[in-house]
Amino acid sequence: MKIRRIAPLTAAACLMAGCGTQTPATPQVSASSSAPSAIHAYNWAGVTAPGAACFSSAPIHLKAETTTDSTGAATTTGSALIPNDTVGHPSNVAAGGPGYVHLFVDPKAVAYGDLDGTGGDEAAVVFLCDNNGGTASGALLMTVGIYRTEGADVSLIELVKPGGEPLGDGRPPLAKVITLSPGKLVIDVLFFGPIDQTSTPSGRARTTWTYADGHLSAGSTIILHAPDTA
Q1: Are 137 and 198 in contact (CB under 8 A)?
Q2: Which one of 84, 101, 114, 129 is separated from 58 by 20 to 30 angstroms, measured CA to CA?
Q3: C-alpha of 88 from chain center
């Protein structure tokens, strides 16, 4: 995969674009969606992820978890624990026990668009796999699963790993799906430089994937904003 650089964004433009933040992209809805379809109403907090999303040899079934903040607002996300003594932490650190890795999905960050050009939407779901340590520094892998409707359920088209070649200092980047349109998937990644804190990557890159014959192929990656160095 080729990587090419373009002129850095100004600080104001970078802020508008969301550089240096984990805030997920606003879900995209294609022009084909005059009314919500089955895929828009799907319970993404309970989606089944491919095992490759978090170092598992078997599919991973996420379960919905709802939390309430100090204002009473409820947020529902999906998560799962997968046994892994190599890089995982115990589910109860104080009590010890076997290690687990943790897979997380935020349904609000799911993006939609007519990727296959048939008039109906597909969905792009961002999966974050971490070491179950409870801190941002425990991030291990971020992937994007592309799904289509299949009857009353959904089925995986493909799982892709955004970012291509290692970027920045090698920490896993944070993915933001920008658009799905006929034959094209655009994904931005926020990546880390040497002075970045674990929750605030300052680099930004974009890869455009082409979709043909049921398969996604990554094009060149453009560096939109190099990570801060001072």
Answers
A1: yes
A2: 114
A3: 20
pTM value is: 0.81
State whether residue 184 is helix, strand or coil.
Answer: strand
Is there a contact between 89 and 72 (Cβ–Cβ < 8 Å)? no
**Count of C-beta atoms within a 10 Å radius of residue 117:** 12
Q: Which contacts of 149-154 are long-range, i.e. CB under 8 A and separated by 24 or more positions?
A: 149/37, 149/38, 149/39, 149/42, 149/120, 152/38, 154/39, 154/42, 154/47, 154/123
Task: Write the DSSP symbol of residue 166.
Answer: -
Size of the chain, expressed as the number of residues it contains: 230
pLDDT digits (tens, 9 = 90+) for 61-103: 999 999 998 999 999 999 999 999 999 999 877 678 899 999 9
For residue 73, give both structure tokens. 């607002």
- CA angle in degrees (0–180, nearest 5) for 169-109-67: 100
Bridge partners (DSSP) of residue 188 are 176, 206
H/E run at residue 11? helix 11-17
Q: How far is CA 160 from CA 37, 175, 177, in A?
A: 24, 11, 12
8-state DSSP, 45: G
SS3 103: strand
- H/E stretch holding 111: strand 111-113
**Whole-number Å distance between alpha carbons of 62 and 45:** 7
